[in-house]
Automatic annotation (TrEMBL):
One of its GO terms (cellular component) is membrane. Its main location: membrane. GO terms for molecular function: odorant binding; olfactory receptor activity. One of its GO terms (biological process) is G protein-coupled receptor signaling pathway. Residues 84-219 form the G-protein coupled receptors family 1 profile domain. It is found in: Membrane. This is G-protein coupled receptors family 1 profile domain-containing protein.
Length: 242
């Protein structure tokens, strides 16, 4: 039985942060470069859609919203706080018997694992959230695009090429996000001594880095409409287009 003084610690210790000696400067420069790349790439797409009147269409506005979301998630560094009020309530009510989280940032399930009491309701709610936010949307989206591509396969080769050019970036972006989210959720289910710290760091950063970098690459290079506007801006500057 834990003493009352050890219950509900006032802070959490994120154990994946360590002193890497002189290598910490290299890691800092690398992380700074990645973050600046994420901000720059997403801002280019947002500005291109905002400044180019021909891109003021629902599809491109949606793409710019994805880039805004990427900026928000990267800047906040807390993508895992988006849980149902229900989920937060089930976690807040738990008495905690420790404060060490084998994570680079605070997330729900590692906090639940610190509890001194039964966490079955939290586990059930977490599994339900996993199914409803990852597996069901992936199945629905892939099924929808499959039906679209099947219909397009009966049309001309030019029509099929345009349809594939439109659908493929969406599929890649959605799958990248879903896989990264699944890896992040799966990572929280491992005990601290079951996973190599280096692998834990890589999987944690994958969710923070890959989707924000993937969106501007896929949409900026994959869609000729946006690519053409971006290249024109880079050559002439936004001021020349106004």
């Amino acid at each position: 039985m834990k003493s009352n003084s050890s219950l509900n610690p006032p802070y959490f210790q994120l154990t994946l942060f360590a002193d890497f000696g002189p290598l910490r400067y290299l890691f800092f420069i690398l992380c700074l470069f990645i973050y600046v790349t994420i901000v720059s790439a997403n801002m280019v797409i947002i500005l291109a859609v905002f400044l180019e009147k021909s891109l003021h269409q629902p599809m491109y506005i949606f793409i710019s919203c994805l880039c805004v979301n990427s900026l928000y998630g990267s800047a906040g560094f807390f993508p895992s706080v988006y849980y149902w009020l229900l989920i937060l309530y089930l976690t807040v009510r738990l008495p905690l018997c420790g404060n060490k989280l084998n994570r680079m940032f605070c997330s729900n399930w590692p906090v639940v694992q610190l509890s001194c009491v039964d966490t079955t309701p939290n586990n059930i709610a977490g599994q339900f959230l996993l199914v409803t936010t990852i597996f069901i949307p992936v199945f629905f989206v892939l099924y929808t695009y499959l039906r679209i591509l099947l219909v397009c396969s009966r049309r001309s080769s030019e029509f099929r090429g345009k349809a594939l050019q439109t659908c493929l970036p969406h599929i890649i972006s959605f799958l990248t996000y879903s896989i990264s989210l699944f890896l992040e959720v799966s990572l929280t289910r491992f005990e601290a001594d079951q996973l190599n710290p280096s692998i834990a760091v890589i999987l944690s950063l994958a969710y923070l880095i890959i989707p924000p970098l993937n969106n501007p690459i896929v949409y900026g290079l994959g869609l000729p409409q946006i690519k053409g506007v971006v290249l024109r801006f880079l050559k002439k500057g936004p001021a020349a287009e106004i």
